[in-house]
Amino acid sequence: MVSLNLDLDIALTQLTERLLTQEQTFTETYVMAKGQLYRTELHLYPVPPSELPADF
User: Fold this and answer.
1) What is the pLDDT at residue 2?
2) CB burial of residue 42 (10 Å; 0-12, 13-18, 19+)
3) What is the DSSP-derived secondary structure letter of residue 4?
4) Nearest 5°: CA angle at 1, between 43 and 36?
5) Distances, alpha carbon 27 to alpha carbons 19, 37, 48, 56, in Å
6) Residue 38 φ then ψ, to 5°
7) What is the pLDDT of residues 1-56, one digit of tens each?
8) DSSP assignment string, 8-56
9) Which residues contact 43 (CB under 8 A, 6 or more apart)?
10) CA dist list (Å): 12 to 7, 8, 20, 35, 49
11) pLDDT at site 1
């Protein structure tokens, strides 16, 4: 598994921490990129270490 971008990994980790602090595992919002609106959703699912990709 290759990271798309370290900044993205950090931002998602921070968002995950905020959601879990509020005992939430789902959020959605709308964002604009390149003049187009997108609905984004984030679902958090616990993953046991045994199910992680070998290259993680």
Assistant:
1) 59
2) middle
3) S
4) 55
5) 8, 17, 22, 25
6) -130, 140
7) 556 688 888 999 999 999 999 999 999 999 999 999 999 999 999 999 999 888 77
8) HHHHHHHHHHHHHHTT--EEEEEEEETTEEEEEEEE-----GGGS-TT-
9) 25, 26
10) 9, 6, 12, 23, 19
11) 55
User: How high is the pLDDT of residue 48?
Assistant: 95
Q: Which amino acid is at 9?
A: D
Q: Give pTM, 2 decimals.
A: 0.71
Please report where in the chains the tokens 């290259």 appear, as a residue: 55
What pLDDT, on a 0 to 100 scale, did the predictor assign at position 45?
95
> Is 25 in contact with 44 (CB distance < 8 Å)?
yes
